[in-house]
Amino acid sequence: MLALRRLARLKSTLAAAAVDECGVPLRPTWSVNELLSSYPKPTISDDALVRLHQLSALIPPKEGSPEFRKLKAEMEDLVKLVEAVKLVNTDGVQVGQGLETKFSTTATALPETGASGRSLMEHAARTKDGFYVVESDRQR
User: Fold this and answer.
1) Which of 10, 21, 98, 110 stands 20 to 30 A from 124 (CA)?
2) pLDDT in tens, the chain (140 residues)
């Protein structure tokens, strides 16, 4: 039911939009913020946010600080966006069905830079057993 209301709102917005000679709307007809405002906001626990930092080898801001609250709100917004994207019906969509495949006349290759793959490890400051070594200020 909610999807039908969104579709009706989108159609009414598109019908009223001023367009150029190619049919492209002159102004945006919708916004991500407007779309997401109709979805419930998920919550992330403080422990979950700290755990995400640990898994990412990052140092979290102090719990209860303004920076922590801001980061938590941003993460909740990202989760909300991901959940909205997961609801998109992709039935009938084929991989590689983008505009570049429809309008491209010749394939363009990336320029060869010389080094690639494992030969790039020669340029690393530190390696160990075939892996890059990155210093971290995180204490275990």
Assistant:
1) 110
2) 555 555 555 555 556 788 888 888 998 888 888 888 888 889 999 999 999 999 999 999 999 999 999 999 999 999 998 988 888 888 888 777 566 655 555 555 656 667 777 788 888 888 888 888 887 765 65
Which amino acid makes up residue 125? A
- What's the rounded Cα separation, in Å, for the pair 30 and 14? 9
Q: 131 forms bridges with which residues in the sheet?
A: 128
Sign of CA dihedral 70, 74, 79, 80: positive
Total residues found in the chain within this entry: 140
- Cβ atoms of 80 and 41 within 8 Å: the answer is yes
